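User: Can you write out an input/output pair for a complex, sequences first and structure second?

Assistant: Here is one pair. Inputs:
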Amino acid sequence: MITEIAPTAEPVVTRPARPGKRRRAWDEVPRWQIYLPLGIYLLFTLVPFYWILLFAVRPAGSTSLLPWPATSEHFQKVWTERSFGTYFTNSVYVGVATLVLTTVVALAGGYALARFDFRLKRGFMLALLCSQFVPGALLLVPLFQIFANLRMINSLGSVVVAETVFQLPLSMILISGFIRNVPYSLEEAAWVDGCNRLTAFRIVVLPMLRPGLVAVGSFAFVHAWNHFLFALMFLSDQSKQTIPVGLNTLMSSDSVDLGALAAGGIIAAVPVVIVFAFIQKWLITGFSAGAVKG
Amino acid sequence: MKSSIRRSRRAAVAVALGSVLALTATACGDDGSGSAGDKGNEGSGKGTITFWDNNGGVRTDVWKQIIADFEKQNPGIKVEYVGIPAASAQSKYDTAIQGGGLPDVGGVGTAMLAEVAVQGALEPLDSRLAKSSLKSKLNQKLLDNSRAAGGGDQLYQIPTSSNNGVLWYRTDLFEKAGLDAPTTWTKFYQAADKLTDKGKNEFGFTIRGGEGSIAPALDAAYSQSGITSFWNGDKTTVNDPKNVAALEKYVALYKKDTPSADVNNDFTKMVAQWDSGTIGMLSHNLGSYQDHLKALGADRFRGLPNPTQDDGTRVQISNPVDGLSVFKSSKNKAAAWKFVEFALSHEENSKFNESAGQIPANTEAASDAWVQRAEPTKLAAEALNGAGTKIVQLPYYLPDWNTISKADNEPNFQKVLLGKMTAKEFLDTLADQLDKAQADWKKNH
């Protein structure tokens, strides 16, 4: 039997600390104590990226430590000769489709977890969490057989479905946390005004979930974008492969074209970096809200 | 409010329809049929066959050329090429054996042949080869390797090419230091010492301490000890005192004449640092020739077969042999075999190996002009086929060989380099595992 969860009291709003005090505390810290550790951290983080950039743009055989004279030969090679243009399109398709499916299904499941009580709910939540500990490689054979029966082998749909299934548990738990943070009374007020549950959810709850949706959606996209195993196993046709598989084909058993590999790595990283640059504010808000208040 | 309800319903229907359409649009794949239990059939010798390249990417272009030539000569057969990253080929085969989706024909190297064959996925090829014009044209040593790697009873792989250990060395650094080419182990150790100047970040040698470290370590041990057989009855010779002493000498180079980061060296890191740094020698194989050529140019390096003993005795371990296998589950084995025969023909095998920089299995291809021009390949072929060369056959036929030589013992070799384990302890552990695996294998054969 499913019962709705009774409305809880409004969360107590704590008074934020006075901005003036925060500023004084900030002013008291010598700048070097902030910038020096940050600088060292940035150095450690950025040096590998610089190295990749160096290999990608300097001509083959060059040992220069500066990316000059620069060449685009490696990018041209991977994009045209190594079919990265096709891989890129396929990865975008898989990433976006996984994002959409994961977000839509996680919203529905998360809402049910947050707003309804049903038998074995705790067990279900526990099962969701436990599913995160099962490595994808263990499920490859059964998944392969399922997709084979559905005639979905060598179809991008198989990768989208597999990625979505593996993303859903964490996404549902996160989204349910966000939904619990939205006061139930707001939904009730919408019902009093004549909305049904779906409309109230769409008009009242959904706009307040934006940080959570960004967090879950970006997490799903990045995971699907980077994931190698499912694409390798379920797709055979070269025209359907994705970027991670393409990157691996740049390394043979005893030879590796480092320039092409670095250029391929940059092509693979750029969309993720751009996505994060645009959404980082919402992402941090989203994760902290879901984690702390959930 | 009614209009709001209608909008909500429309939205719900749109979401549901969108999801269904998205999945329908993408669900136009196939059923991936063909697993290990499937016995397949001869087929008509025409139609479409699937070919899995176990070293996809770098060799994609040359395989596509060979496929185009084949389709031109056999208009009734179409070959679908699937390039698989080398590092994942074994996983892809294993999944397909269990779940279905095996190809008609595929690249299977000797390193993974036993594991694939033992699962009953491969078609024995002895009778097909006996009737084929290829019979007298393939290198007998490589055929023997292929047969041994598959378990010894039947031939599951037709070799396309062989690799061989090569000691790459920087001719410019050797000339500057007044050193002879490192043709013997004595010259090798002298050069490693003389070329090392840690203060200037210059080293004599780079050792493979990470993934893939066991084969080069065993090659160095057997080559110095002069022991010519991997087995002495049912016991391995790997921990023979002579091999222990040879390995101790070899690992003593670590940090003395090599960079300390070498403990994590897989071939990628090792080749990259040799190509871009100041390191005198690198022990790898023919496969990295093109990388060195691009990075250093033809005049600054040479590739020799691994060093001999001072009296010229050459002992080396057997190198992985690449080859093609027909899968038992194929519904068109006749066409699959035609493709194997075509790929092993003189012209095509020559084309493939020139591109891969390896030693052709077709003896006519091995005499082609490009082999004579490519010095490392020519010298490697001479070393491999030389009458005086003694080859220690590694037990690729043991289904546990990959596990023993990789997951079980690569971390132990790192411990030896770091001084946390002695060479003797390492080789004793390895010997114990190999003896047990051999005993298990003998029970079933």
